[in-house]
Amino acid sequence: MIPHPTPWRRGTVTYERPKIMGILNVTPDSFSDGGRHNAPKEALEHAFRMVDEGADMIDIGGESTRPGYVPVSAEEEIARLVPVIRDLAPSIDIPITVDTMKAEVARAAIDAGAAIVNDIYGLRGPGMLEYVAESGVPAIIMHLRGRPGDTHDEDMEGDAVAIVKTFLSERIEAALDAGVRESQIITDPGVGFGKTHAQNLEIVDRSGEFRLGHPVLIGVSRKRFLAHAMPGMDREAASVEMAVRAIGAGADIIRTHDVGALKEAIFR
Prior knowledge:
This protein is of the alpha/beta class. It contains nine helices and ten strands. It has helices at residues 40-53, 74-88, 103-112, 128-135, 160-177, 197-205, 225-229, 235-248, 259-266; strands at 6-8, 11-13, 19-25, 57-61, 96-99, 116-119, 139-142, 185-188, 217-219, 253-256.
């Protein structure tokens, strides 16, 4: 069953085919590409390259959440994100998603031209749920055990699929109770965040179960479990193969660093 479309300020995202979300980290310390695109000129060039390669969305993040990351202030995050979003948004006809846990950053990014909030903390930060309900923008609700600063300290125990589905169901209910509309919600089971290699693989192989009535996003690109799931394969190739596997299992959106390779693999 095709999930409901996602309306955004200049159109609608539909899911008759899987959508590709290109990653643009404007940070000095992200785990695989930190520092490569944190200058506005380089960031814009990379974003346009991903659009040309076939991206359906561009996800821009201004704070790394890799293991051992150092949090940054909302002011610093806004300073990294807003100039790029402001220049990019008028020049492309696909939605920009802003990867942030902070309501004030989300507000600044949306005001600058972003269209969707991508929140790894599942709309649990101060004011975020209220902002999403008030603004009417779509939001990606991700599962993350504990808090962002300690989620990588130890792996989750128990039935990962059941735990993640329960969490997402609870966060969806909280969002709806706060006034968020069904059409605004996208889910993400949080591959790579505080889960064992086996749990990550099981989540990928059961991707469609995390829809819960909504489009589901899966992010596997360059994550550490790939070395265990696909030993001997380089991280880029493994990322593409695992993404295709997630699509086969029901994923609606794939978040990736390598748009061109994934587009070619999906439609080959």
